[in-house]
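hey can u check if this looks right to u? its 243 residues, i copy pasted from the old doc so theres a chance i mangled smth
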Amino acid sequence: MKILGIIPARYASSRFPGKPLVDIRGRSMVMRVYDQASQCSELAKVVVATDDKRIFAHVEANGGAVVMTGEHHNSGTDRCLEALEIMQHEQHYDAVINIQGDEPFIDPEQIAQVAQILQQSDDVQIATLVKKTSEKEELSDPNTVKAVTDISGRALYFSRAPIPWHRDEKMSPSGFTHVGIYGYKSEVLRQIAALPPAPPEITEKLEQLRWLYNGFTIHTAETAFESKGIDTPEDLSKLINIG
């Protein structure tokens, strides 16, 4: 199976403009993500998908593969589809992994995990990762997405609320948090990108609920590592200080 790793990268950001080009110990954020993704042997190729000439020129100048996409995309998923269609002109790809462009220290093993889920069987449509936690603060944080899966690891639901709800107060709360990396079979990516917003998605502001609502299956694997995304300059400062 030929898998294309795509790193969506936008310059515009209300909370952190120019985030992909910010310097992190001598290397830009987008190139750090690119470097990490390139270490994953499961990927046939890694490419940055951007709508900004500055990011395009920067990635190209640093030896990375990059494609220019439109400014109209509402999500990384939509941008990934355009990048796939561009890349398909030179090589066929059976699947795509959408790699977050704001996680400069993402573990290549996590990308490999997603790739391995996609290769398990023809029935796998979408793949992602979850991480077990018993931290009350994490489980109650609406900015941390929680997940519930069935016995085979297929996702049942994602929420910003603490799920499952622990009705028995004597039990120690535990659950899974969602790690925001996605893999899609190429044809499935085309299908989900054409879907209109779904009621649960509109309520929770979680795109993956659109896919579940429309009957697509999302297979998960458990990871012990959670790469920290950077949404604000403060997030970057904290991450550098920790590292």
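Residues 76-87 form the longest helix (12 residues).
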